């Protein structure tokens, strides 16, 4: 009974996922779950397969082996239309922000809104854009181009573009990389705010320990493409494992 | 009596033979790999083409983006095409005049220049200029979008990047390049009239009459039809090279460069095919 309740609360279920490039295996039989409403932080050194993992979840990369179930649907078996429908429920914050260079911030936010929330009128769209931008602290940037914003502002704008379509799941690819500690803290706070306000479940890929401390309900550490350790932030900080200790000490 | 050559005892160095065999094997393997990459590239190109055709006829055409691309490809290229067209007509006239003068056939100059501009020079030169400007522009734009994950961002926000980025650009180029070619033809003929008037005095009405006396509709039609293919090739190659660019920033430059080279080559090949077909039909 308890097992089935647990199963019902799963939003992402990954079993034995393997993915390789040019005969080099990046993910090796990796299995993990994301529970409803949970913030799962995936830690790991560069090249440990963190970004590949979340790209496989939205099928930007095709898995070589294993299964990925998102909201009960096997991502690898979906047809393109079904996949597009599923992707509407997933928000993806890219490491670089990936704002569209040729569009203003307003047009950037309008882009997914027009295509996903087709029933909204222009007035409703404008209100929604303004509301979301205010939520991320960028109320004044509507008509600015991405190139006119700082790195932190671009990340915020990108987050606004992701949450504007009310996703159920958020995937953050190194959200604090390249930002100063103050801005990083701001982004971490924003991630928690998004979780509370939009009731999302999130996977946060990072190697920023402060970000992990601020956001994680649970942490998974990857090493050589597989789960090395799983637990709470306290479990990690109290761990006697040499690798975990060196990682935490170095990063702190 | 013939003296037979004395045979020396030959000793075979197995170590050297082994080394040569290994080197031969490595070279063969590398060549096979190269051929593999080549054929995979062709397969990629065909698949990309098929995906573009499929998305062109699917629902949800991105009309606003198509109009924006028409503006960028058409209107923004006008100054360059204007200068090129005008100079093309002037140069052709100035170069041809002495030869015709030797045969006492200067009166044929307007007709000759108009025919060569409309049939060949206008379409090909304009298309090559467009391959440089538009092909490289599209290649670099999509290449940098790929590098900065903007194409991935589009894909995860349930927008088909090929429909939004590729179909709109290919169709805009297919529609705009014929218009640019006709505009360049008109300016070329105007340039020719200006060049004739440097050394003499011919009214525009007379020049126009002489020029179009030798041109008929069947000179014009094949030349216009082939420009649609030029446009499609330039747009498609630019998109393909940009869309399939690698992940590093270096690949943006490579994408733009190879888009220009391949698009220019395709323009020449399409022109050759078009000329052959026109020759057979007329």
UniProtKB/TrEMBL annotation, chain A:
Residues 12-249 form the ABC transporter domain. Coiled coil: none annotated. InterPro entries: AAA+_ATPase, ABC_transporter-like_ATP-bd, ABC_transporter-like_CS, P-loop_NTPase. This is Phospholipid/cholesterol/gamma-HCH transport system ATP-binding protein. Keywords: ATP-binding, Nucleotide-binding, Transport. GO terms for molecular function: ATP binding; ATP hydrolysis activity. It comes from Alkalitalea saponilacus.
TrEMBL record, chain B:
One of its GO terms (cellular component) is ATP-binding cassette (ABC) transporter complex. Keywords: Membrane, Transmembrane, Transmembrane helix. The chain crosses the membrane at residues 73-92, 164-184, 190-208, 220-243, 255-275. GO terms for molecular function: phospholipid transporter activity. This is Phospholipid/cholesterol/gamma-HCH transport system permease protein.
């Amino acid at each position: 009974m308890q097992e089935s309740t647990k199963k019902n609360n799963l939003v992402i279920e990954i079993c034995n996922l393997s993915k390789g490039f040019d005969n080099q295996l990046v993910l090796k039989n990796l299995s993990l779950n994301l529970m409803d409403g949970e913030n799962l932080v995936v830690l790991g050194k560069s090249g440990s397969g963190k970004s590949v993992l979340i790209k496989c979840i939205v099928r930007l990369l095709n898995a070589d082996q294993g299964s990925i179930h998102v909201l009960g649907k096997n991502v690898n078996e979906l047809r393109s239309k079904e996949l597009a429908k599923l992707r509407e429920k997933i928000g993806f914050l890219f490491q670089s922000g990936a704002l569209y260079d040729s569009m203003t911030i307003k047009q950037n936010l309008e882009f997914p809104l027009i295509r996903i929330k087709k029933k909204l009128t222009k007035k409703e769209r404008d209100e929604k854009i303004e509301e979301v931008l205010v939520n991320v602290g960028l109320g004044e940037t509507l008509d600015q181009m991405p190139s006119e914003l700082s790195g932190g502002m671009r990340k915020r704008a990108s987050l606004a573009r992701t949450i504007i379509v009310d996703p159920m799941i958020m995937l953050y690819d190194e959200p604090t990389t390249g930002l100063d500690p103050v801005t990083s803290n701001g982004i971490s706070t924003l991630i928690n705010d998004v979780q509370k306000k939009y009731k999302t479940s999130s996977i946060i890929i990072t190697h920023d320990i402060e970000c992990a401390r601020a956001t994680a309900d649970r942490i998974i550490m990857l090493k050589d493409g597989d789960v090395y350790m799983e637990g709470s932030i306290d479990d990690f900080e109290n761990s006697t494992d040499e690798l975990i200790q060196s990682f935490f000490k170095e990063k702190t | 009596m013939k003296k037979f050559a004395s045979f020396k005892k030959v000793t075979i160095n197995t170590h050297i033979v082994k080394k040569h065999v290994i080197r031969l094997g490595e070279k063969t393997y590398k060549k096979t790999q190269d051929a593999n990459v080549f054929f995979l590239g062709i397969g990629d190109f065909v698949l990309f083409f098929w995906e573009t055709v499929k998305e062109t006829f699917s629902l949800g055409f991105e009309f606003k983006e198509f109009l924006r691309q028409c503006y960028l490809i058409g209107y923004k290229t006008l100054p360059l095409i204007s200068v090129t067209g005008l100079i093309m007509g002037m140069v052709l006239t100035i170069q041809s005049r002495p030869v015709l003068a030797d045969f006492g056939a200067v009166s044929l100059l307007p007709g000759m220049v108009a025919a060569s501009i409309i049939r060949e020079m206008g379409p090909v030169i304009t298309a090559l200029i467009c391959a440089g400007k538009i092909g490289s522009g599209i290649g670099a734009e999509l290449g940098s979008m790929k590098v900065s994950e903007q194409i991935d961002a589009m894909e995860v926000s349930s927008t088909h990047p090929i429909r939004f980025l590729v179909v709109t650009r290919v169709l805009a180029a297919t529609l705009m390049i014929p218009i640019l070619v006709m505009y360049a033809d008109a300016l070329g003929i105007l340039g020719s009239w200006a060049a004739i008037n440097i050394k003499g005095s011919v009214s525009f009405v007379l020049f126009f009459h002489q020029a179009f006396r030798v041109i008929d509709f069947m000179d014009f039609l094949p030349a216009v039809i082939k420009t649609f293919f030029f446009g499609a090739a330039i747009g498609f190659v630019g998109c393909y090279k940009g869309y399939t660019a690698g992940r590093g920033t270096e690949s943006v430059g490579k994408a733009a460069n190879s888009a220009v080279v391949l698009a220019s080559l395709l323009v020449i090949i399409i022109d050759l095919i078009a000329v052959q077909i026109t020759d057979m039909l007329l």
